[in-house]
Queue: 2 jobs
Job 1
Amino acid sequence: MAAFFEVMIERNFSSAHQLRGYKGKCENLHGHNYKIEIYARGEELNNIGLLIDFGDLKAAADEIVRYLDHRNLNELPPFDEELNPSAENLARYFLEYLNSRIADDRVVVHKVRCFETPTSVATYLIGG
């Protein structure tokens, strides 16, 4: 079994959305106070004993949060046409964006959990 280090940060934002093609109350415009948990992992620490600086990971995540916070997700690319703004697609969006921003080959964001409510969460993960 492979061993690795894992770090997690949490971010929060509020947005409105409506689900296209959904039959039910979520087809109507409504909002959530989202909580995002971001998990990064790697096998090796850097020369000062860190997997990744929490501040660097938070700064990259905050780029997305600033883009989405207090906005209608249906009006923002890629959720305006390409993707339905579901919790599942938000989790994938965060993961893919963050991995494109991390310039350290030792580290990968491998899991993102997107909470629409404290009891409703979608997870996107890579690598099993």
Job 2
Amino acid sequence: MLVTGGAGYIGSHVVLALRDAGRAVVVLDDLSTGRRDLVPDDVPFVRGDVGDGALVRRVMAEHGCRAVMHFAGSIIVSESTREPLRYYRNNVAASQALIEACVEAGVESFVFSSSAAVYGMPERCPVDETAPTRPINPYGRTKLITEWALEDAIRAHGLRVAALRYFNVAGADPKGRSGECQPVASHLVKIAAQLAVGARGGMSIYGDDYDTPDGTCVRDYIHVSDLADAHLAALRHLEGGGESVTLNCGYGHGYSVRQVLDKVGEVLGRALPLSVAPRRPGDPPLLVADATRIGRVLGWTPKHDDLGKIVSSAITWERKLLAEAAP
């Protein structure tokens, strides 16, 4: 099977899970943000653009791919507001080219990396899959547009699709084989782990006056290895003849920013140096998944639903990156 973006944070964990399950995998990644060393040496790797339809068709033909998992794309919300057209090119146009190549090649199963960003500012939490989709930034819009394109491909071409809407993905492979590598971090747990190991000097809490128990935003943090397992479960569902599905990927409960940072301090044995900054525009106070459907449809049960495990694995990974960077 083909995994696009398989040298990135989430994609590399899914490649490891597929390999551990004995699945034959080929990775396509342009390495614009991914790292080649996150892909095991025994996994075929092609460096290239997922939007290059001819290349995608050649790779799928050479490796006999009947299924695709699509992770390639740009993912930083704040960057998407500054460079929206690049996000539409990388996330929409490239995905369209990939979907067309899949239809032409007779691909049967397609698992798409979507996002809770499609919900925008939800009116109710927990958020289930029937909630209105009202993305408030270009990143969220690109994910929703790609979901729409896939829905039309389902109707017109019989493609079977699982669109997985991630909530806040965090942590690193418990065996230390992969983790988040972007030096310019945008995710809370990654930033806090960098601070914990001395890779950054400080960090800010953006707003402490929200209508939440401690005044800081609450999010549903899912361990990346549990997310990888959800992808394998989605693939098995589709390959077993299951209908196309759209599913939230979260635990169904949340932690506040302060709770996460307190847990990092607890694991570290000392408090983190923190400051409070003004709210960021567009941050919902509460964003938590209703994860009922994914458990019911896929039989998915998380194994790492523990904030301490999530932050500990992230800190261990940051220590590894720091050691690699040392002269």
